[in-house]
Amino acid sequence: MTKSSTGFDWITILIYILLVGFGWINIYSASLGTNDPTDFFNMNVPYGRQALFISLSVVLIILLLSIEAKFYQRFSSIIYSLSLLSLVGLFIFGSTIAGQTAWYQIGPISIQPSEFAKAATALAVAKYLSGIQTNIRDFKHQLKVFLIIALPMLLVLLQPDAGSAMVYFSFAFALYREGLHFVYLLLGFFAASIFVATLAFGPLWVICSILLIAALVYLKNLKRKPNLIKYLFFASVAVGFSLSVNYVFENIFKQHHRDRFNIVLGKEVDSRGIGYNTNQSEIAIGSGGLFGKGWTEGTQTKGHFVPEQHTDYIFSTVGEEWGFMGSTFILGLFVLLMLRLLYLAERQKSTFSRVYGYGVIGILFMHFLVNIGMVIGIFPTVGIPLPFLSYGGSGLWAFTTLLFIFIKLDSQRISF
Amino acid sequence: MRKLLLYITILVTGIVFLARLFYLQVVNDSFAVRSQDNAIEVVYDYPQRGYISDRNGKLMVSNQPSYDVMAIPRNLKPFDTTEFCEILSIEPEELGRRLDKAKIYSPILPSVIIPQLTKAEYAYLQEKMRKYEGFYIQKRSLRDYQVDHSANVLGYIAQVNQKKVNEDPYYISGDLIGRSGVEKVYEELLRGEKGVKYIQKDRFNRDIGPYKDGIYDTLPTKGKDISITIDAELQAYGEKLMQNKRGGIVAIEPGSGEILSLVTAPNYDPALLVGRKRSPNYTRLYYDSIAQPLYDRGLLAEYPPGSPFKVLTGLIALQEGVVDTEDTFSCHNGFSYGRGRRMGCHPHSSPLGLVPGISSSCNTYFAQVYRKTIEKYPSPQEGMDAWNNHLQSFGLGQFMGNDLSTGRPGKIPNADYYNKIYNYPTYKWYASATLSNAIGQGEVLMTPIQLANMTAIIANRGWYYTPHILKKIEGEPIKEEKFTVKKNTTIDRKHYDPVVEGMHQVYTNGTARRLQVPGIEIAGKTGTAENFTKINGKRTQLTDHSIFVAFAPVDNPKIALAVFVENGYWGSRYAGKIASLMVEKYIKKEITRTDLEDWILNHSLEDEYAKPLSGEPFIINQ
User: Fold this and answer.
1) Position A117 pLDDT exceeds 80
2) Cys bridge to B419: A82, A323, B424, B441, which one at CB 3.0-4.6 A?
3) Sequence spans of domains, chain B
4) How many Cβ contacts (< 8 angstroms) between chains A and B?
5) Distance between CA atoms of A174 and A348, rounded to whole angstroms?
6) What share of chain B in percent tops pLDDT 90?
7) Listed residue (A399, A387, A398) closest to A312, CA to CA
8) Contact across the interface for A335 and B34, Cβ inside 8 Å
9) DSSP strands (E only) in B491-606
10) Mean of the per-residue pLDDT values for chain B?
11) Do the Cβ atoms of B535 and B385 come closer than 8 Å?
12) Which CATH architecture has domain B64-141?
């Protein structure tokens, strides 16, 4: 042990404290309203409850750090199974809020198991990939790990919570790090590109472009006698994908899904209707200017113009009240946290710890990307929280658990 | 490589987000404006507009309350259109159009839907107002005129136009602003400062208290009361004398440059341009392209000044030393010059010097001295510019820098002007080519206020204050340097005495001897100016304009004035009579020359004005 006496990575813990603390300050501002500003533990308002959640997090952290690192590896399968069970159980015992059956209501407390399922899946993926016989280049093993990821994803999708389901794509980073062929990522990337291009420019243009590119590459490689059939196959798969995207978009997506995409693609500007959230969020952030309007001085925040501002849109309060300086600070903390975790992950001796670390980073990154992208108007509206900052007990505890298991694993990387 | 993918992805995402935030928060400032728009409501409190009194403290303009029906389109709820339209006597289609227009202006800012309700409409609507969500009544103050004259002097107020709203952040749509006259020039004094309240709104547009505890809120400041230099009684009398005539009277107090009256005829009752009737009345006045009641002839009409200008020709000749008061010229019904050209004159004794030259208005005398003036210099160009320079010192050929809302510079030609006309140096020109200037015809143009100011300068024997209309602000005399610093002319004081004597003799034994007022020594000068119009594209001469300038008393001038009556024929026929009456009215406050008054009040020039429009051949100067 060459690090500090406890062996915990204090840089990560410090960033965690800053994010959670700054998060609470902004939740306070966003939900203050006409309440007594000195009553920090007022349970009727989000900032009061969040203060409680944060206090309980401290207990949770002590608990997580006092458990032996080996426990997480050994019991990962059981944790994963219990997590899946909790997701299935939702369809029987869960309560529905805003159309999503995602909550267990126990007295005054509601728990969202899908938040914890991400950590459980990360443990399960790490456990599977660290198995001695597991070879990620083997197709059968690939299928198995995809299944581990797809099961909770599907259950979450059924709630329906497309945003949370999307987060599971982030395991691609861990799998790629462990040797998954680049083609998978490439395919994913192309699929995403064709998807967006089809929505933005229509299938006709996309198909023309695909055929043109295929023809060009074919002609360029003519001397090496390329296999025409192969080219035709890939081109027709791409064309087929584009057409099916168009079909799915026009016929299977609901209108509100279509609207969300169209707004980001700049096709529809409807600042009163569906585009309201994004528009108000941009106004709040943009009006913050360089230095912001000051804490609890945000006119947009006070007027509650941005819906869900203390939860998914908390970053708009940061932008309005702390300005470009404040939002850069938060952006910086996140990037720093992820890069720090990346450094920690790479120094792990055990595959389990490393894969789990990559899982953590991937999940955090996905939330960061989708949430801030949405709040600043470059991503479609997908309701997932900003880790550590957004209001919510389940979210805070789930991210705390996710992070502190890794801190524990890292602290025992020599012996473990 | 495998380690790098996530690393790069995180960094790239961070940079893209940073760039986007930089754009939103630092580069693009439209969001700040939109934030103001939807989160903060600005409520204005309008102050009373300042009162306007005349020089003797007689109240001319005060205020009456007025009520506008305003709407904030976003807050509108469905309402009983039929009842609403009935109360306000407006067509439902028209109401729809106005609401659409308001929505286009701004869905969240108030727009005037129905301006200036009558008291009865207001009383009735007030009861029902709660039924019309999104509408409210904005109280403003409208003008209440205590006089039925001086419309051109006072000007009017009207809703501010969009251009002004864009230029000046003080104004918002629906505000009232002075559009002409004193109301326009002294808008900032008269309007005061409106008070403002910033109210923080939530997304349902409910008030949630003052923005920043009201630190930016202000109370309205009442507009300043002002006194103008106009003598309301004299003004009213002037307008009465000018009935059925067209033209203008400008009277100035020579000792102060204060404008005592500024009459334009035809005129209109200022009350016509108040309230909801303003718009149709204004349109009617605006489209009267024949009488042009909105055209302030006293300030805007550039006429050839005619004979009164001879006084200046004489003064310049004396100053240049080309003639002295003893020199005489003979005149036999005119004056031949150049290649067979001739300037006519009327019968009078001959030969004569400066003083009788003025009193009998001899064309020949002034043509001679003018030519001598120009020819004193080596070239006509230099002579012309020297002459022009003297006239500039009288404030001619330029905007005077007065505080009136409108004006014209008139025209005093210089060497460049003639060089262009005659295509110098290909062709040369000489003093004789510009000779008509000597008698105020030719290329010289002056507005009546310039003519009046010229008279005031002569009354002062060589100096003047820039004519102005503002006398006091809140009872304090104005201190503006522009109006309180003497301006001297280029003519020495001693040269004025013979000229004043000549003008005095105009009354004692010259062209205005029949217009004398018992007990008042008046100096004056008649003028008659030829003028032309186009009828079916053909240049046609009309009856001469009747012009007169005067000041009195000769030794202690209290009033100097210029009177201009379009197509009034010779100078003493209309303008001279009016000038004498104005002088008597101002100095004695009563009229003894009732014979002149009766004549003026009973003579109309409407027939004269109808002639060129009749489409039939007509005879002029009869």
Assistant:
1) yes
2) B424
3) 64-141, 232-614
4) 122
5) 14
6) 35
7) A387
8) no
9) 523-535, 538-552, 559-565
10) 87
11) no
12) Alpha-Beta Complex (3.90)
- Cα dist from B598 to B244, B580, B595, B602, whole Å: 14, 13, 5, 6
- Rounded-to-10 torsion of CA A69, A73, A78, A82: 70
Distance CA B55, CA B104 (A): 46
B41 contacts in chain A (CB < 8 Å): none
Q: Tell me the C-alpha distance between A88 and A90, whole Å.
A: 5
Residue A164 to residue A153: CA distance in whole angstroms? 8
Tokens 């490393």 locate to: A354
Cα–Cα distance measured from residue B132 to residue B71, given in angstroms and rounded to the nearest whole number: 10
Give the pLDDT score at A301: 80
Both tokens assigned to A334? 């996140």
Q: Which of B512, B361, B366 is nearest to B431 (CA)?
A: B366
CA angle B364, B367, B373 (to 5 degrees): 140
As given in the structure block, the two tokens for residue B528 are 């008659």
Distance CA A166, CA B115 (A): 57
Q: Considering chain A, what is the average pLDDT of its residues?
A: 86
One-letter amino acid for residue B451 of the chain: L
Nearest CB to B203; choose among A282, A305, A339: A305
Residue count (chain B)? 622
Q: In B, which residues are within 8 Å of A351 by CB distance?
A: none
More confident residue, B482 or A330: A330
- Strand pairing report for B538-552 and B559-565: antiparallel
Q: Which of B7, B9, B16, B24 to mutate to test the interface with A (most CBs of A within 10 A)?
A: B24
Residues B409-431 have pLDDT tens digits of 999 988 888 888 888 888 888 88
pTM listed for this prediction: 0.63
Whole-angstrom distance, CA of residue B568 vs CA of residue B259: 24
> How many CB atoms sit inside 10 A of residue B244's CB?
16
Handedness of CA A392, A394, A397, A403 (dihedral sign): negative
Collapse the DSSP code of B608 into the 3-class scheme (helix H, G, I; strand E, B; otherwise coil) and give the result: helix
Alpha-carbon gap, residue B386 to B450, rounded angstroms: 20
Q: Which amino acid is at A47?
A: Y
Residues 6+ apart with CB under 8 A from B303: B445, B446, B447, B448, B529, B531, B545, B547, B564
Interface test with B, best of A283, A306, A341, A348 (most B CBs within 10 A): A283
- The confidence score (pLDDT) of residue B523 equals 93
Confidence of residue B329 (pLDDT cuts 50, 70, 90): confident
How many CA atoms lie less than 13 Å away from B592 in the CB half-sphere?
A: 10
Rounded to the nearest 5°, which phi and psi values hold at A283? -60, -45
pLDDT of residue A265: 65
Beta strand B52-53 with B226-228 is parallel
pLDDT, residue B418, reads: 87
Confidence of residue A266 (pLDDT cuts 50, 70, 90): low
What DSSP string runs through B383-442?
A: HHHHHHHHHHTTTTTS----S-S-----B---HHHHHHHTTTTTS---GGGGGGGGGT-T
DSSP line for B448-502? HHHHHHHHHHHHHTSEEPPPB-EEEETTEEP--HHHHS-EE-SS-GGGHHHHHHH
Please tell me the predicted confidence (pLDDT) of residue A345. Answer: 94
Q: Is the ipTM of this complex over 0.85?
A: yes
CATH number for region B232-614? 3.40.710.10
For CA atoms B105, B111, B114, B116, give the dihedral sign: negative
Q: Is B577:B547 a contact under the CB 8 Å cutoff?
A: no
Q: What is the pLDDT of residue A1?
A: 41
**Residue B549 pairs with which residues in a beta bridge?**
B525, B562
